[in-house]
Amino acid sequence: MCSSKEIEILRQVCGQDFVLMTPGIRPIGAPLDDQKRVMTPKQALDLGATHLVIGRPITQANDSKQAALEILESL
């Protein structure tokens, strides 16, 4: 588990096979809520995150399925 700001250094130190689960992922335009170290899904994956934790932008959306689909399309 690491913040999005730690992905790049952990990927360099731990190698490509190391699992990096990253919370605080927010699609463009989503409110930050209480998150301080945020990044878009694409940015996090491009840096080497393997698992993204995207909670409230999906669970609190008016249409959760559509919110998830839009995130997938952004990748």
Q: What is the CA–CA distance across the termini? A: 21 Å
What is the N-to-C order of secondary-structure elements (H for helix, E for strand)? HEHEHH
Q: How many whole angstroms does the radius of gyration measure?
A: 12 Å
**Overall SS class:** mainly alpha
State the helix count. 4
* Percent helix: 40-55%
The domain tally reads: 1
Strands ordered across the widest β-sheet: 1-2
Mean pLDDT equals 94
- Number of distinct beta strands: 2
Sheet-strand content, in percent, reads: 5-15%
Q: So what's the overall shape? A: elongated
Any low-confidence stretches, pLDDT <50, length ≥5? Answer: none
What composes the largest sheet? 2 strands, parallel
Task: Characterise this structure.
The protein has one domain. It contains four helices and two strands. The chain has helices spanning 7-14, 41-47, 56-59, 64-74; strands at residues 21-22, 51-52. The model has no long low-confidence stretch (mean pLDDT 94).
What topology emerges from the helices and strands here?
Blueprint (H helix, E strand, L loop, with lengths): L6 H8 L6 E2 L18 H7 L3 E2 L3 H4 L4 H11 L1
Parallel strand pairs: 1-2
In short:
With 75 residues, the protein is mostly helical. It has one domain (4-74).
Q: Which descriptors would you attach to this protein?
A:
single chain; mainly alpha; two-stranded parallel ribbon; 2 strands; elongated
